[in-house]
């Protein structure tokens, strides 16, 4: 388990060992709004758990260390062999305006939003 505590916000990655802990608030979604809400609640002396679906992709995706590569997943191929772990890999139904092709619908899962 990796645990970071900042301003009273618990970020628990790769573990459900915090299931036995109790929190005043549980914020689901670590995007910009969820993270901001969690910090505001913690600043008001509430205990807060911030839950995010994604992994710590900076450790598992080699290109994450290169500046500006955060834009690569946007519109990228949803093929599991190609796309980054921070993307859900959603595709649309076949689109008539795209000659019947499915279109990748980029949706992220990482702390800080996407």
TrEMBL record:
It comes from the Eukaryota. One of its GO terms (biological process) is secondary metabolite biosynthetic process. Residues 23-57 form the FAD/NAD(P)-binding domain. Residues 1-20 form the signal peptide. The keyword Signal applies. Keywords: Signal. GO terms for molecular function: flavin adenine dinucleotide binding; oxidoreductase activity. Pfam families: Pyr_redox_2 (PF07992). Belongs to the GMC oxidoreductase family. This is FAD/NAD(P)-binding domain-containing protein.
